[in-house]
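Format notes (please read before filing issues)

Several people have asked whether sequences and structure tokens are stored in separate files. They are not. Every record keeps both together, in the order shown below: the sequence lines, then the token lines. Line labels are part of the format and must not be stripped during preprocessing.
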Amino acid sequence: MTGSGSTMPPQTVRAFLAIELPYEALTALATLVAELDAARLPYMRTVRPENIHLTIKFLGDVPATQTEAIITAVSKAVAACSPFKLEFGAVGVYPSPGRARVLWVGLKGDRAPLIDLHGEVENALASFGFEREARPYSPHLTVARIGDRASASGRQRAVEVLHDAEFQEGLPLTVGSIVLMRSELSREGALHYPLARIPLREPLRRDTP
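Then the structure lines:
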């Protein structure tokens, strides 16, 4: 029996693997989010800029005792992946402008290494019982979501605001690691905390003559 002032450690951890974004990228996304907020559209909820990340794999509720084994397995898997570069692409919506539910920023650049990285993570986690994604991996950065009660015209207006917003493609993003994140739900929304940063393989250095 524990004392009244003690707390029990969590039995499960709501977790996901993601690529964190550099400060410059978050700043650009914050400007985009501010423009979406300024439209004051009903049933549209923007993502807090500090919470925007590139999801590699959502794990859900994981036993707290299993996190170290997951970190070890993923570390071994991504050790075969070299750092790579991405950049901001165009904005878009899912699934279509008339039925928009998710507003996002696309990514371009070295997408092939990103797809390979995702595949290595999927392989590593399969042994823990995590199901593989049924659909092909589609990397994007979610900036807003639209609720079910939004009207068709409201969804269309959200799409227009997104495409009219001041946003420049091409901002570079260098990827050298992935992060195992813990997510906690609160009244203010989800709060994310890094549990472990897992580096990709360091490129070989050539001796200079």
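For reference, the curators noted about this record: The chain has a mean pLDDT of 90. The radius of gyration is 19 Å.
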